[in-house]
Known about the structure:
Helix content is 45%, strand content 11%. The protein is built from 18 helices and eleven strands. It has helices at residues 30-33, 78-91, 105-115, 131-137, 153-160, 164-180, 197-209, 226-237, 255-265, 286-296, 298-304, 310-320, 342-350, 378-387, 394-410, 415-428, 443-473, 477-486; strands at 24-26, 59-62, 95-98, 122-128, 144-150, 184-190, 214-219, 243-248, 269-272, 338-339, 368-370. The chain binds 3-hydroxy-3-carboxy-adipic acid (HCA) and copper (II) ion. Copper (II) ion (CU) is lined by residues 67, 220, 247, 249, 278-279, 283.
Amino acid sequence: MCPTVDDGAPATNGVQANGSHEGFTKFESDFEKKGKAHTVNKNPYQPVGDFLSNVSNFKIIESTLREGEQFANAYFDTETKIKIAKALDEFGVDCIELTSPCASEQSRLDCEAICKLGLKAKILTHVRCHMDDVKVAVETGVDGVDVVIGTSSFLREHSHGKDMTYIKNAAIEVIEFVKSKGLEIRFSSEDSFRSDLVDLLSLYAAVDKVGVNRVGIADTVGCASPRQVYDLVRTLRGVVSCDIECHFHNDSGCAIANAYCALEAGATHIDTSVIGIGERNGITPLGGLMARMIVADRDYVKGKYDLHKLKAIEDLVADSVEINIPFNNYITGFSAFTHKAGIHAKAILANPSTYEIIDPADFGMKRYVHFASRLTGWNAIKSRVEQLSLTMTDAQVKLCTAKIKALADVRPIAIDDADSIIRTFHGNLHKENEDPLLPNMTEEEKKKFEQKQRELNGVTEKRELEDQADKEAEVPQAKKTKTVAGA
Ligand code: HCA
Ligand code: CU
């Protein structure tokens, strides 16, 4: 189950095509009904002013068709690759990175086919830092070549077996060759965070000197923390004058935070993939990066990327690799904009900025209130009563809410149950012989429900008595407020 986009497009992942969402209701807050805007852009989390920061000026290298193809479940046929490339281009990513044309004959043909699409995004291919590979890459029609070689002792000793002098010479040869063909070249060190810092910086300085367009830092094993990222990128920023790209794996959950810190430290490009797919548990997700960056600079993100297309791209990729969008996915996850507790619902109704740092409308998404639960509050039920075009006084809504809560204590209830209680409760207001609130209850449920109602009545009576006692004792206002808030 997943919130639907606002454009009426068919929904996936369990949401009905008509937008119905079991147990939840879409709604506009009073605040928005009055024509006031979500105030998320006026938040205290503006980027820290720093002339090296690129938080308000970053580029995306979208690697679903390279890193994403390394995801366990991924298999992209040519048609799917083309669909994904076009969708990413329409979304507005700056570069699209493709699997090495040396991986297989079909990979080479697909790379050529995508280059011929005439997309706005730059098309890059990702190859080993080796002349054999770059010679093939430059013939495919790409705008640029991303080369990579392992620099950590783990990879030097147990993977390719080459020393730093060999790596430096290979890098320079490859860079000069790609540049001689008039193409863009990026040099990246694999496993940068477990590489020797002095080795790494002297390698980057050498490739910068021969005119590489971009250097890349890769947290290949997902070990880096935001602070380590900041330190390394800021140090590198002082050593090279070219662009800096960063690539973060998510093994220890820092991929988005690391990307943000890299930009704060002066990185220019971030690698992403749709839903984060890649080796193991993947890399910085495109949607997650958007969520992070829109909080920092809404105008830049909204101005540059067609955010309403995010959900469709995620659905396309999720279908292709046969996975579901996780319930807690940034922006598009089933519960990303769903509010449940009565206190939250009440505040959201008044002004959504109270519990939303991101405006779902920026992504063409809707917020939901989960009102069919024991945590619901009378404000949420009142909003539902209005949606059902019924009229009740606040006192009646409060009583009806108590009934819903009592029933939700007996068994999980769906939106239909809550609606049915509301409607029957409303009908009973004008009847002498009341109808049962829910016709389909078992004898046992009825008993429990009655018991719950008695308990609730007891609580109400107790509160009334306490209120009465407070009044009589003339309790000071501050103390009284505290009692009510804690109730
Ligand atoms: C890999 C390579 C890579 C490369 C990143 C880059 C990594 O698949 O192991 O080119 O910057 O994570 O190191 O994806
Ligand atoms: Cu990677």
